[in-house]
Amino acid sequence: MIPPSASPSSQTCGGSESRARSDREPRSDGAESSINLKQAFPGALRAIARAQAESHVSQRIQQGAAASTVNREMTVLKHMLSRAFRWEYLGADRVAGLKPLREPSGRTRFLSLEEIERLLAACEDSISPCLRSFVVVALNTGMRRNEILGLTRKSVDWANRAATLADTKNGEARYVYLNDAALDALRSLPPWLDTTRLFPLAPNQTTMLFHRAVKRAGIEDFRLHDLRHTFASYQAMSGVAARGLQSLLGHKDPRMTMRYSHLSEAYLRAAVNGVQLGRGGQAAPLGTKVGTYLAPEPPSKTA
Asked: Which member of 61, 119, 227, 246 has the greatest number of CB atoms within 10 A?
């Protein structure tokens, strides 16, 4: 059931940004990879040589592309050539065995509770009236940027508090559960006249608006995708097991979940202090006080 809302708004979600840009559907990572490959290899598949593929890798790194981005592009190319060889359209698979680039370990940057408040306050000053709602949804669901931008009112089951994601990074549909904060943020969005999407923003436009808010908030070294890290980190600190975290994040490979399961120093200190052995045979109480359900309160400096 779609909740009642105000009359359709003619205001753009991007504020003064171009309406034409915000109307575009968000592209998936696979679509971006395909576009880059088409530009780099405009001819027939049979014309692609190994040296050409290696040259493309070098050029993309020089252009500033991340190793993970280049690896995804080459995975698409290798899959195409492998299929063409298997189906006997090609006499040889010239890029078989091409090694992927070494990728750095996953980022562990996540916001403190104080930084979250500063970021949300900065979003209030954005030219976009829906940037704050976008950030709240990201913080409370762990959805990726394009997954949030692809949400429509029909894709949200308001009664059962869940959203259906038809187009995800791993290519499989999944369901995302919505807490009170995420639901309130989505309900606050007005219906738009020219689109069924809840967030009529273009991907790059969203990233630009977000980076401006981060700068206004005085937060350093924080990217839009780190909102997903923040969600996962606090879920882990609240006691969600690795298997549950994997399901919440929509990961196929459990190893991907481990990069999000790091804990803050305050949590680690509280966890170690929670079990004290060798003190007259008594252990410290397990139900120690925590600051919020997200993370334990750090020790008081005046204590």
From this structure: 227
All domains of the chain in start order, with CATH:
29-86 (no CATH), 108-257 (1.10.443.10)
pLDDT at position 18 over 80: no
Q: Find the largest Cα–Cα distance for the chain.
A: 77
d(CA 37, CA 28): 15
Alpha helices in 12-96 (DSSP H): 19-23, 29-40, 50-62, 67-86
Give 102: exposed, middle or buried? Use CB within 10 Å, 0-12, 13-18, 19+.
exposed
**Tokens in use for 33?**
């990879």
What is the chain's Cα-based Rg?
Answer: 23
The per-residue pLDDT for range 118-131, each reduced to its tens digit, is 999 999 999 999 99
Contact (Cβ atoms closer than 8 angstroms) between residue 241 and residue 273: no
The pTM of the whole model exceeds 0.70: no
